[in-house]
TrEMBL record:
UniProt KW keywords: Membrane, Transmembrane, Transmembrane helix
The protein's name: Protein NRT1/ PTR FAMILY 3.1
Primary location: membrane
Keyword Ubl conjugation: no
Biased composition (Basic and acidic residues): 7-23, 583-606
Length: 614
């Protein structure tokens, strides 16, 4: 087995020593990265939050078609990050992937803003306020719309999988604990995630108040123009920090390595796996560029793939270099195992997105039918109801660290209170409650419409305060505070080091799959209920939207049971950490990345830290 002293691997890959590497990165890069992400999210949310209103009120699309257009757009926007993450990890690097994606996104926003300003690209206003007299948007108008949304989807593919990983890279330079300093890099990395999600929610809060107000009360030209300018500021902020960033070199296509392991294992499917895993192939020099924080250790799961690391005749070329499609190292085999083990957990989070997709479509249309006055002369725009979700998430994020974690720590003995998977499971359970509340509120709204003879007057205001919808949004925001941070921490922690952009892409791929599942669910329900009174129709007063919500709740309960089973069976990855003591000697520590108690934190390479640790 080829074993090399890895003390020189930094120099082999064009890197300096640890002290030299620490000259860049750190918190001094955060103003540029977080300013970029704040402006980016402000633009994205301002662009998307009220798009259902633009499609139904300005382009006069039917509600179901508009809802499916949005969910398909959101699905594509969260599918392209998988490609973007692969590009970043393979050859482009995260900085240039983010920059290119931001420029493409900017082009899409400019295109849609121009279409909102030009009367020739919009249908004329409805005659006498009657929906039947509304002229639908022309094919040319819809083509411009779809091309604009396509550009923003492609641009999103470059930014979403890379921004979080790029920010965490600024603190990943010292993830290997030094003597007497346990997990310093990990501490800063996990603090970054807390800051990241807090900044995202602040941006959302600003967008759904300021931008939505402009769209509803000033005009769509200004309403889309403001996010477009904000996106331009985001690009400028990010690029201006170029000299300060640590730019981790891509390690080659991670998916090619995974394919090589699978092919090599299949070729040796008839070879017996040795009982002593120490006989499997190792090569520190070969893995140096993709294991700078330590190599993955062998696990006893999915042992079929261990065959890829069994040395057989013909596995090396004439110069002694292993043929990658015939022989893989244990580290590379464990990369594939790590991804496979993560997939069942990842799949369980898809329904959370599906269950929340109506917050940007049907729930906004519900709010439009209700009494939105909160004070004399002050009326809440329907899309601004999302403010309750964002405010609840901000509050929950703050209270989680300051109030909940200290109490959970005393109960569980864990420094972080609960594991990533327990936090994610709590989010799934809370989200189920949110949709149950949505069903109850919608039932009450329909009864109010019936009492006042408004069942056949969809344009009339139902005498029921829109604030009755605030609890469902707030509960969903609290669920996101548990779910979003928990699943991102899990993916980043458990993903192989060389695949962290791709792991972040899995986070967004969850949203993509959830959006498409939302489209499938809405379409199926709409088609199946036509004969017995449509559940989902333009006239919500005659529809049965509450039954749709109860259907979603039922699916969520089933999904929660599935998640609990997967979490119980999940095995955390194991990592070999190389320490350098004050004597200059190097030693190896085998670390299983599970949440540990305070007394164990010296042995932890990655541990979620609280924002209070900053």
């Amino acid at each position: 087995m080829a074993e090399e002293d890895d003390s020189s691997r930094w120099h082999e890959h064009g890197e300096g020593d640890a002290s030299e590497k620490r000259k860049q990165g750190g918190f001094k890069t955060m103003p540029f990265i977080l300013a970029n992400d704040f402006c980016d999210r402000f633009a994205t949310i301002g662009f998307n939050a009220n798009l259902i209103t633009y499609l139904t009120q300005q382009l006069h699309l039917p509600l179901v078609e508009a809802s499916n257009t949005l969910t398909n757009f959101h699905g594509l926007s969260n599918l392209t990050p998988l490609v973007g993450g692969l590009v970043a990890d393979s050859f482009a690097g995260r900085f240039w992937t983010i920059t290119f994606g931001s420029v493409i996104y900017q082009l899409g926003m400019v295109s849609l803003t121009v279409s909102a300003l030009l009367p020739s690209l919009r249908p004329p206003p409805c005659a006498a306020g009657e929906q039947a007299a509304c002229a639908r948007a022309t094919a040319w108008s819809l083509l411009v719309l779809h091309l604009s949304l396509l550009c923003t989807s492609i641009g999103t593919g470059g930014t979403r999988p890379c921004v979080m990983a790029f920010g965490a890279d600024q603190f990943e330079l010292d993830t290997t604990p030094r003597h007497g300093e346990a997990g310093a890099g990990a501490k800063r990395g996990w603090s970054f995630f807390n800051l990241y999600f807090f900044g995202v929610e602040l941006a959302k809060l600003a967008a759904i108040t300021l931008v939505v107000y402009i769209q509803e009360n000033v005009g769509w030209g200004w309403g889309l123009g403001v996010p477009t300018v904000a996106m331009l500021a985001a690009v400028a902020a990010f690029v201006s920090g170029y000299p300060l960033y640590v730019k981790v070199a891509p390690g080659g296509s991670p998916f090619t390595r995974l394919a090589q392991v699978a092919v090599a294992a299949f070729r040796k499917r008839n070879v017996a796996v040795p009982s002593d895993h120490g006989n499997l192939y190792q090569d520190k020099k070969l893995d140096a560029g993709i294991s700078t924080a330590g190599r993955l250790l062998h696990t006893n799961q999915l042992t079929f793939f261990d065959r890829a690391a069994i040395v057989t005749p013909g596995d090396f070329d004439s110069s002694g270099i292993p043929l990658p499609w015939r022989l893989s190292t244990v580290h590379r085999v464990e990369e594939l195992k790590s991804i496979i083990r993560m997939l069942p957990i990842w799949a369980a989070t898809i329904l959370l997105v599906t269950s929340a997709s109506h917050n940007h479509s049907f729930a906004i249309q519900q709010a439009r039918t209700m009494d939105r006055r909160v004070a004399a002369g002050l009326e809440i725009p329907p899309a601004t109801m999302l403010i309750f979700s964002n405010a609840a998430m901000l509050g929950t994020l703050a209270l989680y660290d300051r109030v909940l974690v200290p109490r959970l720590r005393r109960l569980t003995g864990r420094a972080e209170g609960v594991t990533h998977l327990q936090r994610t499971g709590a989010g799934l359970a809370i989200s189920t409650v949110s949709n149950a509340v949505s069903a109850v509120v919608e039932r009450a709204r329909k009864r109010a419409a019936a009492r006042h003879g408004l069942l056949d007057r969809p344009g009339a205001t139902v005498p029921m305060s829109v604030l009755w919808m605030a609890p469902q949004y707030a509960i969903h925001g609290a669920a996101d505070a548990f779910m979003d941070v928990g699943r991102m921490e899990f993916l980043y922690d458990q993903a192989p080091e060389s695949m962290r952009s791709s792991a972040a892409a899995l986070y967004w791929l969850t949203t993509s799959a959830g959006s498409y599942m939302g489209t499938l669910l809405v379409t199926t329900v709409h088609e199946r209920t036509k004969g017995e009174g449509e559940w989902l129709q333009d006239n919500l007063n005659r529809g049965k939207l509450d039954r749709y919500y109860w259907l979603v709740v039922t699916l969520q309960v089933i999904n929660l049971v599935y998640f609990v089973i997967c979490a119980k069976l999940y095995t955390y990855k194991k990592l070999e950490v190389v320490d350098q003591e004050s004597t200059g000697e190097r030693r190896e520590k085998h670390v299983e990345l599970q949440p540990l108690k305070d007394s164990d934190e010296k042995d932890v390479e990655l541990r979620p830290l609280l924002s209070s640790d900053l």
